[in-house]
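re: ur msg from earlier - yeah i can do the flavin-adenine dinucleotide complex, just paste it... oh wait u already did. ok heres what im feeding in:
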Amino acid sequence: MSDPDEVAVVGAGLAGCLLACFLARRGLPVALYERRPDPRTGTAERGRSINLALSERGLDALRRVGLDRQVMAEALPMRGRVIHPVKGEPDFQPYSHDGARAINSISRGALNNALLDAAAALPGVRIAFGHRLTELDPKTGEMTFDTEGGPVRACAAVVIGADGAGSAVRAQLLAHGGLTESLDVLDYGYKELTIPPLDGEFALAPDALHIWPRGTSMMIALPNPDRSFTCTLFWPTSGTGSFASLGDPAAIEGHFAAHYPDLGPLAPTLVEDYRRNPVGTLGTVRCRPWQVNGTAGLIGDAAHAIVPFYGQGANCAFEDVVELDRCLAETGGDWTAALPLLEARRADNTEAIARMALANFVEMRDKVASPMFQLGKKAEHLLERALPGRYVSRYELVSFSTVPYAEVARRVRRQHRMLGAGALALAVSAAAFVLLRRNR
Ligand code: FAD
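and the outut:
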């Protein structure tokens, strides 16, 4: 059963569900197609990250559909990073100069379910689970889905692919010659481990994101409402110190004892987790254009997946949805104008966060442990206090504001130039002063 006037949203993940909410609030009939069964009645898919960091951009979108309070009720605020060196005590580094601002660790499953409930409750939204899109004709809006009962055909006036990094909608648009794409797969993968509660309490400080920076690799841990932590290893996929190089239990135990000595006593299922949990791939997806004929388009990871090192992928996908809603409002609901407008406004911003996310990997796995970096962060917080509103760190602008990502990149470059000029002026004055005194 399908209504040719419907908007079909393929993928009931984070972006797809939020988009269904926004479209239904505009009075549009929406069909949300999801390949998985209803996650509210089953268990989470293994291998997808369990929790994620939600920050201001994501919260801004949730506020607009009245879901922020519900989602934040279960959130665990993380006010900074705790760095775990191989030897020595962990070190806390606040995210903001006053230590007050926090990013929020939330359950991906709970967020998705809250969005699904919200979408399902709106008039005009129907959700078809167990529907995996396999074919799409962008000219006619005809779709074919694989279902348990065999192939199902459907049709829609507009089709939006919110089906994630490996988007089938994008593949179909590519197959019909509608776009070009590039996939930069990182030679790093990720694997999750668990730190269970210790005597019923959090085993580590719950108000921080924990990082074990190890130069060419790292592990992070985020707290969960059940007082456990989910750790994510970001390791090379091949070569020394890679996932491929570590298989038997003794080698796994030995490696963690040498490189993550404080983890072993806190993670009793470390070896089982390591051997059982899959290695996920990481990469950057770029494609152009994001839409074909103004009737088939892409949003979120389907259009521009990024590496997770700034904790911004979902936040950015939510921003896309807000912007698409704005474009529809400004174009009087004309999709053929709104979809190109969305791309024109978002493409530079998504490219900017893609680059910042890659750069942040180097910072997290390598630089955060260095005394020079820590000194730099302290100096940055001093500047933020001394020049309120005039000097704002990149982290602050990305995580605690909705300043467009491309503008963040430009502003940070300007600030660095200003600081460089300031430092030069200071050096020239000091040299002139020395010369004057010598010539007296
Ligand atoms: P997805 O969440 O991938 O949803 C796509 C949906 O489409 C899924 O439900 C899928 O089942 C469905 N689907 C796929 N193919 C089909 C098909 N053919 N037919 C029908 N349905 C289909 N972001 C943050 O903001 N903060 C973080 O801390 C963070 N941490 C991360 C950690 C890791 C390890 C990873 C890998 C990512 C992280 N991200 C984070 C990024 C974030 O997960 C993504 O950016 C976000 O999930 C994108 O949302 P989406 O709705 O576009 O895609």
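cool cool. The mean pLDDT is 93. ping me if u need the other ligands too
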